[in-house]
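**User:** I keep going back and forth on a fold encoding question. It is easy to fool oneself when nobody else works the same problem. Could you pick a protein and write out its sequence and tokenised fold? Could you put it straight underneath, so I can go through it closely?

**Assistant:**
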Amino acid sequence: MAAKKASEPSAESIARAQRRQIAAEEGAKALAESGQRAAAVRNNMERLRALRLAKEAEDAKAGGDAASAPRPRRRKKVVR
């Protein structure tokens, strides 16, 4: 049997190695981008929560919790 020399990689193996390296780099980049998006979403949620709590505290301080007061129920008309 004729064996290939291990020191000389074939063109196919070089191309395969390059594809793997490119895929690994793109995967790392995508993972970093998704982490940045998740951090931005968490920061926005935290900011909005703080605004909501401040508004609720101010509404409670103003006294009238009119917005959260239950509305009177309507009675259904009975057709006779």
Observations:
- Helices lie at 11-62.
- The radius of gyration is 32 Å.
- Residues 11-62 form one domain.
